[in-house]
């Protein structure tokens, strides 16, 4: 049979074409730089780091630079309301730890990562690489990244 | 001329179709319920409200229920790091106020609202109705709403 040329009906609806476009979006092209703190730093220092770096989520690592926890603004605000001296409390006391940490990888679909953020009601996922002894943090994927991707979907149109 | 029936080339690319779909998304179908506090409540009470309602942004209204300010988790965390007694500080001291407040309306495109969130580096916009004497708050549009809309773009496909 001769190949058909030119335009013809592809059998796809608008939604299918949309879906095809969205499934091309991969975490590696959209994530931000991670901001990490050691699990021995104080809550006070973590809050200072959060303001200096202007991020909403910090990732906590051990002395081998492997992921052991996550700190959200909400976690830090809750801790700051307590009566303790924040300089005396190490972050590992208040952080979210395994197995509760949700992660993603560079080659994951942005859609799947977005779904994880929504289902787990969290603001950010660490982008990780699995090592023999644990997870190395190589990125930070946030609702801001998803919102930017959403806006850029149309900007690529022009 | 006889109307053409069946499928034919619309002259649109995948990106144009995508863009068409995205431009159908309107703020009114995606926003959340607003959580408001009076401008005389203390920072302490505002933080308590934020936790009870589990939101990242509070809108501040005056005695006529008109919008006068916005409080983010970041604003409250910053205030909590100071040396003041949070029960003694009214929120109007620390809130973001006009003309710095960014708003959206129910009939705005979700894309335009998303763009405002990104450009102004904020987490939420109040959805407002303009009254003679000011702005009435009728909703809250957040990066979570945008992330949900992003995920649902593909779910509607099935």
General description of the model:
2 copies of one chain form a homodimer. Chain A is 32% helix and 21% strand. The first copy, chain A, has 158 residues and is an alpha+beta fold. Chain A has a single domain, classed as CBS-domain (Roll), CATH 3.10.580.10. A 4-stranded mixed beta sheet of chain A has the order 1-2-3-4. In chain A, strands 5-6 form a two-stranded antiparallel sheet. In chain A, α2 crosses α3. The longest helix of chain A is centred in the last third of the chain and has 13 residues, at 143-155.
SSE map:
Two copies of one chain form a homodimer.
Chain A (H helix, E strand, L loop, with lengths): L13 H9 L13 E3 L4 H11 L3 E5 L5 E6 H8 L15 E2 L12 H10 L4 E8 L2 E9 H13 L3
Parallel strand pairs in A: 1-2
Antiparallel strand pairs in A: 2-3, 3-4, 5-6
Helix pairs in contact in A: 2-3
Which keywords apply here?
CBS-domain, 21% strand, alpha+beta, homodimer, 158 residues, two-stranded antiparallel sheet, 6 strands
Task: Offer a concise description of the structure.
With 158 residues, chain A is of the alpha+beta class. Helices cover 32% and strands 21% of the residues of chain A. Chain A has a single domain (25-155), classed as CBS-domain (Roll).
